[in-house]
């Protein structure tokens, strides 16, 4: 339900402030929804400060947390249309991504983020035909002069901080997700069912991977660095160049895998071929890489041909479950899709799926040479939150990586123990560098926004990816996500591990 609004013209010299303002004429239904939203926020905000500021003629609600030690962020969220409240209580979660993006397909809600003036980020919601609402997110904290583009990021970090503070022990034990409001049951059920149907079976896995990686190589090249590496870099400091940090990560993985010229190396999910080329140049080994993305395969083969390394490198378009057990690999390395042997898997075990973790390790066991090593780099969540999160139809699984399941470290090791003889030899968390990696990607993405739209991608695509970068950055900055490099071996592997003078290098100490 919506009532008529009296329009007031508003002019501004700034291009992003050229929008129509409305008085907050609010219907009884929207007023009822506002009561529930503000009541919820009053209970929810226990640290930091959130100010809900309505359009001229409306009200201002301040939610000041008692605990200022955990989070000192102060965020203003300006509402320019009262349907914000009604949409909020119908959403399947009181998270901005789920609330706005989650209904995009069915209700036509779109969210955009633009720098409206220094230290502000404007969020535009288009709700239905001819109806628009605006939200302005303003980051105001002691670092505000330095964080001119951190408005959305700070809002997400504020929500994360309060989510942790309000999570009860009963919710943790229940290990299942429920909507914030009873009015969201219908939308919640629809999204949950859709999420459940995206298990990574052999056929579905191809669809899920292609959904993301077949957007076009040109799109990824516009926000990644020159190495075209789509995983966490390893920074020595915040000012370091992304390309330098990515090369440090690659060198660290090669060192941890202890790859030599005599080795046969398998990489599960080879991305755009950067790791393969650098690996062969450094070690002279024989390399096999697999992927489910035709776009990546075509691009990588072109790069290998340009480098003149066709005799050492071969690429296959296949799933890890299709690898023949008769072929053995000394090392398995993967940073795009979780695959093989002395295995370095960079952040793609998330695409394997909860139901297939044991199958993945069993397949690695079957193709890994007896003295081989498996190296994985993967994003991880806390063990206590894993069951709840894997059942939740969240923003990433819905819009960015369909079918993804971010594992916990405990889930990885339990699958390893159940399906293989492998054991953990080395673990390192490089997650804090992912925050800096994502901020670099976001900066590059927005800098090349006009080029991306020229390729035929619409504003919804731009908004979704900008949200994706900030959403993930907030999680890593708040230590809700980690990024592990783990080396696996079999017991008694003297051949690979017997040299006491060749330990596992720290990624941060790599050249």
TrEMBL record:
Entry's Gene Ontology molecular function annotations: methyltransferase activity
InterPro entries recorded: Arsenite_MeTrfase-like (IPR026669), SAM-dependent_MTases_sf (IPR029063)
Top-level taxon: Eukaryota
Protein name (record): Cyclopropane-fatty-acyl-phospholipid synthase
């Amino acid at each position: 339900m919506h009532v008529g609004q009296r329009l007031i013209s508003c002019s501004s010299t700034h291009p992003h402030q050229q929008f129509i303002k409305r008085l907050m004429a609010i219907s009884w239904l929207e007023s009822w929804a506002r009561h529930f939203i503000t009541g919820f926020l009053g209970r929810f905000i226990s640290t930091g400060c959130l100010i809900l500021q309505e359009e001229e003629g409306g009200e201002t609600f301040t939610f000041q947390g008692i605990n200022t030690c955990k989070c000192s962020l102060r965020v203003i969220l300006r509402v320019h249309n009262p349907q914000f409240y009604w949409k909020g209580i119908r959403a399947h979660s009181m998270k901005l991504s789920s609330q706005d993006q989650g209904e995009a397909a069915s209700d036509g809600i779109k969210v955009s983020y633009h720098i409206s003036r220094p230290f502000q980020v404007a969020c535009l919601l288009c709700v239905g035909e001819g109806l628009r609402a605006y939200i302005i997110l303003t980051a105001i904290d002691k670092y505000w002069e330095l964080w001119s583009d951190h408005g959305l990021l700070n809002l997400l970090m504020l929500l994360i901080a309060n989510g942790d503070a309000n999570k009860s022990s009963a919710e943790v034990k229940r290990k299942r997700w429920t909507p914030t409001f009873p009015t969201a049951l219908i939308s919640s059920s629809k999204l949950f069912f859709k999420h459940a149907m995206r298990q990574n079976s052999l056929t579905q896995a191809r669809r899920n991977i292609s959904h993301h990686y077949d957007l076009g190589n040109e799109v990824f090249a516009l926000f990644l660095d020159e190495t075209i590496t789509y995983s966490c870099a390893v920074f020595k400091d915040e000012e370091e160049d992304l390309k330098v940090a990515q090369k440090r990560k690659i060198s660290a993985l090669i060192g941890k895998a202890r790859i030599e010229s005599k080795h046969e190396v398998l990489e599960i999910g080879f991305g755009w071929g950067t790791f393969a080329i650098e690996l062969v140049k450094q070690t002279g080994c024989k390399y096999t890489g697999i992927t489910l993305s035709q776009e990546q395969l075509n691009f990588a083969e072109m790069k290998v041909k340009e480098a003149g390394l066709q005799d050492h490198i071969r690429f296959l378009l296949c799933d890890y479950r299709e690898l023949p057990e008769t072929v053995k690999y000394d090392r398995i390395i993967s940073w795009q899709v979780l695959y093989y042997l002395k295995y370095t898997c960079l952040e793609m075990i998330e695409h394997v799926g909860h139901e297939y973790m044991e199958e993945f390790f069993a397949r690695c066991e079957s193709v890994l040479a007896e003295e081989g090593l498996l190296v994985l780099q993967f994003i991880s969540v806390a063990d206590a939150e894993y069951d709840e999160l894997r059942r939740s139809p969240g923003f990433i699984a819905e819009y960015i990586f369909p079918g993804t399941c971010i594992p916990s470290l405990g889930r990885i090791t339990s699958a390893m123990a159940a399906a293989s003889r492998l054991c953990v030899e080395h673990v390192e968390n490089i997650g804090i560098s992912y925050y800096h990696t994502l901020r670099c990607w976001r900066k590059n993405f927005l800098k090349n926004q006009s080029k991306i739209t020229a390729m035929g991608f619409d504003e919804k695509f731009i908004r979704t990816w900008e949200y994706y970068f900030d959403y993930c950055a907030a999680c890593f900055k708040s230590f809700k996500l980690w990024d592990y490099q783990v080396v696996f071996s079999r017991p008694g592997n003297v051949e690979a591990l017997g040299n006491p003078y060749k330990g596992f290098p720290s990624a941060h100490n790599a050249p």
